[in-house]
Amino acid sequence: MLVSPLQVWDLSDIDKDGHLDRDEFAVAMHLVYRALEKEPVPSALPPSLIPPSKRKKTVFPGAVPVLPASPPPKDSLRSTPSHGSVSSLNSTGSLSPKHSLKQTQPTVNWVVPVADKMRFDEIFLKTDLDLDGYVSGQEVKEIFMHSGLTQNLLAHIWALADTRQTGKLSKDQFALAMYFIQQKVSKGIDPPQVLSPDMVPPSERGTPGPVSGAGHALGVLTSLPTACHQVALKYSLEQDIREKEEAIRQKTSEVQELQNDLDRETSSLQELEAQKQDAQDRLDEMDQQKAKLRDMLSDVRQKCQDETQMISSLKTQIQSQESDLKSQEDDLNRAKSELNRLQQEETQLEQSIQAGRVQLETIIKSLKSTQDEINQARSKLSQLHESRQEAHRSLEQYDQVLDGAHGASLTDLANLSEGVSLAERGSFGAMVKVE
């Protein structure tokens, strides 16, 4: 398909100033490349092909994302020749020296202070997780949002810092964006609408300027379809290389994330194993304590059984002793009763003797008769003593009967008590007669 150079020029010269700047030249090269691929050249430039620098700056609320999440699409990258491609095109001599690209610019100081630049570089190194020398919008989103600025303002700052419209920021571009944010947050200074020369990062200075000269450009577009195809092919290969490098960086980042996950899981596993070992040690210790407690419990139970048996034996002994004590108390009571009775008999005997003495005094003159009576009294007294001894023997037999009460009958006890009573009555009767 034949390409009309004038049509391509008219579509590419968006601002109609008779010159092609860097973005407009990229649009022209894109249209030529599309024509070489048998695609029709549009009659009017569609909005998707208008470079960002040529678009209106009006921002509608909610229509602009906070930060670019990824680089531009593949087609857009293919349609925009790199600086190397432009340089290659210039090296063919198609453009006259009068309209050649500018290679040098006067030195201008940068607005970002050195101290702030060093601090921003440290933040950049911590944020650049994939170590590709660039940070994406996703990587700096948290840092930018932490400033508290609106999404539209952050998007504008990103557009100013992303001078090459790559969707990523280099170290100097990131420092410039952080400088604008710092100025707004600390001093309330709004970022400019366009970058002044002192705001352009040093690494971005010396970029080729606009292309001018409609006549020469028309000649280039007319006579270089083969060169454009070669440039496009070279750019396509370079883009493929960049895509593969990006894929490698992504894979490297994924591998690094997996390695980090593995390290974290390994650390967690080690901690769990340590906890398991600690729990096992504690379990073993508790098992040992449990075994000791079981032994102690067995000993205590054995001692309890021994003590229970001893208590039972002691209770039996106490009951036996209580029974013996009761029997002894009964014997003691009986002995006391017998003693009282004997004491009474002794008192009666003493009274009888006293009466006899009184009578003896009264009848002392009748010594013979009295002597006989005394002899009789002595004989009776002897009998009394014998009766007393007999009573003692009866008491002893009674005690023996009481001690052997299990074998003796109540009849024997009654007979024995009756015999003792008869003996006592006989003794007292004899004494009465003597008196």
TrEMBL record:
Single biological process term from Gene Ontology: endocytosis
Coiled coil: 234-387
EH domain span: 7-56, 116-206
GO molecular function: calcium ion binding
Lineage top rank: taxon: Eukaryota
InterPro entries (alphabetical): EF-hand-dom_pair (IPR011992), EF_Hand_1_Ca_BS (IPR018247), EF_hand_dom (IPR002048), EH_dom (IPR000261)
Low complexity composition-biased segments: 82-96
Keyword Coiled coil set for record: yes
Keyword Metal-binding: yes
Keywords: Calcium, Coiled coil, Metal-binding
TM ranges: none
Location of the region described as Disordered in the Swiss-Prot/TrEMBL record: 62-102
GO cellular component: cytoplasm; plasma membrane
Domain EF-hand: 7-35, 115-150
CDD domains reported in the protein's UniProt record: EH
Record-linked PANTHER family: EH DOMAIN, EPIDERMAL GROWTH FACTOR RECEPTOR SUBSTRATE 15-LIKE 1
UniProt-recorded name of the protein: Epidermal growth factor receptor pathway substrate 15 like 1
